[in-house]
Design goal:
Layout: H1 2-30, H2 40-49, H3 51-74, H4 78-107
Helix pairs in contact: 1-2, 1-4, 3-4
Length: 110
């Protein structure tokens, strides 16, 4: 039973991480209320506009995060420092990339 919940949790986390950048961009642009981040039809529509770039950025972020986890596990004490620095730069790069992609999606041009 625990393995089933582990697989479901990982799957749910990956799906949530996929929609999170566009949901935050959607919320930041509308500034109506908190519930604009949960307009799934609008979020999916905006992702569909830039689907290739969005998926490539998401996949690169996941792969880089997995590499950082392996570094943290493989190198005993140095791994924690490398993980912290790498995660910091991962969030900076992903934030810049998803911000640029979401801006293109919100403007509606390609």
């Amino acid at each position: 039973m625990g393995v089933l919940f582990l697989i479901l949790g990982i799957g749910f986390g990956l799906v949530a991480f996929f929609f999170l950048p566009m949901a935050l961009a959607f919320y930041g642009r509308e500034e109506d209320s908190f519930w604009t981040a949960f307009r799934w039809s609008g979020i999916v529509e905006k992702i569909w506009v830039v689907q290739r770039d969005y998926f490539a950025g998401w996949l690169a972020s996941v792969i880089f995060f997995l590499i950082l986890l392996l570094v943290r596990v493989y190198f005993l004490y140095l791994g924690w420092i490398l993980f912290a620095l790498g995660f910091f730069y991962l969030t900076l790069a992903a934030g810049y990339f998803f911000g640029r992609v979401c801006r293109v999606s919100m403007e509606g041009r390609r």
